[in-house]
Amino acid sequence: MLKLHGTLPVLNSVTRGSYLVTVTKSANLPPVLRKRRALLKQPLVDGKGYKAILTNERQRHESYVDSDVFIISTAYDYLDDGDIIRLDSASGSFSCLYRRSSPNNTILLTEQCDHYCLMCSQPPKNVDDSWLLKEAFELINLIPTDTERLGFSGGEPTLYGDKFIELLHHTRRFLPNTGIDILSNGRAFRDIAFAKKYASVNHPNMLIGIPIYSDDPVRHEYVVQSKGAFDETIRGIMNLKEVNQKVEIRIVIQKQTIDRLVKTCEFIARNLLFVDHVALMGLEITGFTRPNLDILWIDPYEYKDNLSEAVALLNSYGMTVSVYNHQLCTINPDVLRNYRKSISDWKTEYLDECLRCTKRQDCGGLFSSSKQYRHSKYIKAFA
């Protein structure tokens, strides 16, 4: 698992407050560009004029006088040209917000949410974190225009209302060729006026992923811990499709809803056939999932027949369906054409058993948290 956040020792501090900066390995940039770059410094290379210097040297250099200088360890060896980071020389705080080489870049917009899902991977906080939205506008300005896809997540991004729509317009202007993936509970779109504002972004490749955990409203609302959520989510999906927006339905498979998985997929096929994609997802053991693990965990191998039936049903209706966050040895062969390697590259790991597997290159592996806390007992290498 890559270390995307941390605290770095500071050799020199000249800037007050945190800032965003693009990483470079080039020590020969023009002075005007150096002020917006963090130099990954090599020994004997002069770093004069750069906004920040990232070095493994622990001795001060005369070229450091005008720059914030941080000491980085081998844990950050993944940093490369074009990555965008947040630095604060007063605290030594470091966050990697965008990796140039990764297809899995997602921008966290808020940790506030109007749901309290049992397996939330980003537990909500009742704090004013609107600075994240402000930072997102700046981050978009720095991201390369040839980036293929970019995600926005929370918390619940739509809690910002019109400010969220403004961010989407901003992204459309600065990154017109970049596909956008949004994670939302969908409830804000029950207001058709808000759905129309969202549609006004007029993005040709923008997809919003919305969870439906059960066809039974009571069970769905138990999982999200919010009354009225089911009806408002369904209305939100219908309004989004009424204004011709792309919608993905997400189902996280867990013990509380597994017995309704096929029925839930049948409900989707009969009532929401017009959605663009359905994702059947394995459980990530982080956030609220960890304290709730005993009531949520079911071994994927034990529900593989349910998964096969659910996928076959959706396929029979001509829907586009994908299976995410599973290992190849825990699913039936009939699911393979719908199987996707989906776990973000920075948190994908494999067990020792996987190292000798002949299908490892085709398998999505495990979440690093699954390797640490709990995973299928039936993971076995293909010979």
Description:
This protein has 383 residues and is α/β, with parallel strands linked by helices. The protein folds into two domains: 5-98, Glucose Oxidase, domain 1 (3-Layer(bba) Sandwich); 106-372, TIM Barrel (Alpha-Beta Barrel), CATH 3.20.20.70. It contains ten helices and 17 strands. The strands form three sheets. An eight-stranded mixed β-sheet has the order 1-8-7-3-4-5-6-2, with helices on one face. A seven-stranded parallel β-sheet has the order 9-10-11-12-13-14-15, with helices on one face. The protein has a two-stranded antiparallel ribbon with strand order 16-17. Helix 2 packs parallel to helix 3 (162-174) and helix 7 packs parallel to helix 9. It is globular, with a radius of gyration of 23 Å.
First CA to last CA: what distance?
Answer: 27 Å
Uncertain segments: none
The CATH class assignment of the largest domain is Alpha Beta
User: What portion of residues belong to β-strands?
Assistant: 15-25%
Q: Count of helices? A: 10
Which structural class matches the secondary elements? Answer: alpha/beta
Order of helices and strands: EEEHEEEEEEHEHEHEHHEHEHHEEEH
Q: What is the fold-level CATH name, i.e. the topology of the largest domain?
A: TIM Barrel
Mean pLDDT: 96
Write out the CATH superfamily name of the largest domain: Aldolase class I
Extended strand count:
17
Mind telling me which CATH architecture of the largest domain this is? Answer: Alpha-Beta Barrel
| Overall helicity | 10-25%
> How do the strands of the widest beta sheet line up side by side?
1-8-7-3-4-5-6-2
Radius of gyration: 23 Å
Largest sheet: 8 strands, mixed
Total count of domains = 2
Shape: globular
